[in-house]
Amino acid sequence: MVTIYDIAKKANVSAMTVSRVINKSEKISEITRKKVEAVIKELNYIPNNSARNLITKKTKILSLMITDIGNPFFTSVARGAEDKAMQMGYQLLLCNSDENFEKESKYMDMLISTGSDGVLIAPANDNSKKNMKKLTKHGIPFVLIDRRIPDIDCDQVLSDNEATTRRLIEHLIKQGHRKIAIINGPLVVSTARERQQSYIDTLKIHGISVNNDLIKESHFRDSDVTNSIQELLNLPESERPTAIFATNNFIGMNTMKILYRHNIKVPEEIAVVSYDVPNYTENESILTVAEQQAYNFGYIGIQLLIERIEGAAPEKARKIVLPSEIHLRASSLNQRD
Amino acid sequence: MVTIYDIAKKANVSAMTVSRVINKSEKISEITRKKVEAVIKELNYIPNNSARNLITKKTKILSLMITDIGNPFFTSVARGAEDKAMQMGYQLLLCNSDENFEKESKYMDMLISTGSDGVLIAPANDNSKKNMKKLTKHGIPFVLIDRRIPDIDCDQVLSDNEATTRRLIEHLIKQGHRKIAIINGPLVVSTARERQQSYIDTLKIHGISVNNDLIKESHFRDSDVTNSIQELLNLPESERPTAIFATNNFIGMNTMKILYRHNIKVPEEIAVVSYDVPNYTENESILTVAEQQAYNFGYIGIQLLIERIEGAAPEKARKIVLPSEIHLRASSLNQRD
DNA sequence: CTGTTAGCGCCTTCAC
DNA sequence: GTGAAGGCGCTAACAG
């Protein structure tokens, strides 16, 4: 391994001078700098960050804790995070919690040990509060994205769940629907709670009574929603929903697939609206969706994080709410319109 | 920051003993181990990897260099890589080269500096050879996935491009096609070359003359293939293709979208087959595809890499070829079948 | 089984 | 502008 001493010897300077060159110190004469740089290049020297970190306590490594990189929403988040991190000279450590607090905790210890300068995190659920406290104890800044944690005050990049859900539900109501079901993620996740609350509030505002049989708590993972849908279909005619609100992409995709499999016409028999369904295939999508700014969750999140790390952020925690865009498509539009 | 000395003092042992407990050394009495572990827990001690790495030269960090995490193929690779890495106690640094050698090189320096124990890499193109040499010079093992590099002998996990392409093309020939176009990625990428060669060979074997007007070199990024397709459509009736072979997912998706936009019926006017198109939406796909074992590229790749790092691999480089699965669908099936 | 000594590669501090 | 000394937190090598 080539060290600064090797460079120093060959360039006839002290190690300290080499260090100054590497760190782009101003107080170096043009001549010695050129000389040192030449040797660095010649010997293919690359600084050893471990040694550096030991002193500076900075690794230039950020951790991205998401629930699943396989979820297209988080894939975009990751891409945004990585673009900004790279641009600012940071590297990104990838962690998938799989919506699981224990797995998240394990990663947390690893990333503290590694010496992450900061963490961008979409927490698994409300339990993650413990992990946030741990980060704070270790003096590691973090930014929450997508999901908030009760009583945790920190920089956040969130979605306008209340407004977007309301618009989605009001759209269904305008289309004549009264029996609207919701297939949701677990209520220990803030986004699930917020979307459900807005769903309930919107129905009430429009004088529609809330039927608990139409509220299904499922998962945000790419899991089976067959049971939830079967239960909805088994409801007596008078209760059976004419529309379904899917609160994330996996739920939305799988709901559509199951309805097709049951030969249920969308939207004639059941209309469907969903959060976040990407159009990654050859077909034009027919699904009405609320598209969140996934890329910006990552991009802006990393920006806030780095500002915080580098002391460029205001003391007060910042909360950024990114609006979603609703795409109205066939899955929720009446023929007669 | 809590150090081993804090633990040592409080537990009335030497720092060395604490170090042994952390590293699960056998030569520690049950009693002192318990005592030390208690203090570690009490003080919330987490080892400083930077200090550790400085001595051991091991970081337990692996780098994953892919061209774009946004490409669903690589998303699966990443997920497989991460699962195996986590299982083996390693963390994963994410790098997107964007099919760009310069960007890849920049990451390469960063990851060497950080001290990656190894690199799993889908190289940007043949130029990446320089980066492989650099890794070798720094004694960092790497495993090539998906794409090979001429004259680089190392562990590899590759796809059966020759056989799968042949089956795809023979399927089209069986369907009666003689004018088959290929829209390919850049030929500086090994997979593009292999698929193109197999396309040519298969045509020849079946006595079909190769028409260079039907061979289009495009990109593997999510870029525009409009021009390529337009050129194909502008061909005189006698040359115009009746089938298109798209060599990756983005090309496949975009080809389908453009054909739809041109109101060209698939497969009646033009049949389409593609590599790797995921079905991430609510619709059932109609596209005939060769599905690669993306997850296993990552999972097995990391396994080979860790074996290599930990000295558990045979000296001779291993080459693993994962077969693809062809899904025949409407986009390439004649009505009359 | 446990402790002592030395040093990993670099940067901080303080001289010159 | 440049250099010398010391130490970051930890573990290898050795001693007992």
UniProtKB/TrEMBL annotation, chains A, B:
Supply the PANTHER family for this chain: HTH-TYPE TRANSCRIPTIONAL REPRESSOR PURR-RELATED, LACI-RELATED TRANSCRIPTIONAL REPRESSOR
Q: Where is the HTH lacI-type domain?
A: 2-56
Alphabetically list the UniProt keywords. DNA-binding, Repressor, Transcription, Transcription regulation
The record lists the lineage as: Bacteria, Bacillati, Bacillota, Bacilli, Bacillales
What GO molecular function annotations does the UniProt record carry, in alphabetical order?
A: DNA-binding transcription factor activity; transcription cis-regulatory region binding
Superkingdom as given in the UniProt entry: Bacteria
Name under which the protein is recorded = Catabolite control protein A
Q: Does the keyword Translocase apply?
A: no
Write down the species: Mesobacillus foraminis
Question: What sections of the protein cross the membrane?
Answer: none
